[in-house]
Amino acid sequence: MEFGSAGADRGLLKEFEAIIAVVIGGALLTGGYGSVIGAALGALIFGVVQQGLFFAGVESSLFRVFLGVILLFAVILNTYIRRIITGER
Length: 89
Description:
Elements: H1 14-24, H2 36-56, H3 60-86
Helix pairs in contact: 1-2, 1-3
GO molecular function: transmembrane transporter activity
Subcellular location: Cell membrane
Membrane topology: Multi-pass membrane protein
């Protein structure tokens, strides 16, 4: 047992997961505005989905692909909702 060291791969993709959680919560990747409540709800939703995939036995390589799909879906949905709200086409 070693103490005082950590693996180089600890925390891998955590910043990407944080970005996905905030985008799910309604923040735009292009800048602008978001809310703390939206970010917290996005993190909650992302955490539930992540745990569901873990308990379903999804492989880690497929999980990374799923992260990208979630981000893409969240960006498209946010853009669509913003266009409806602002009345743009």
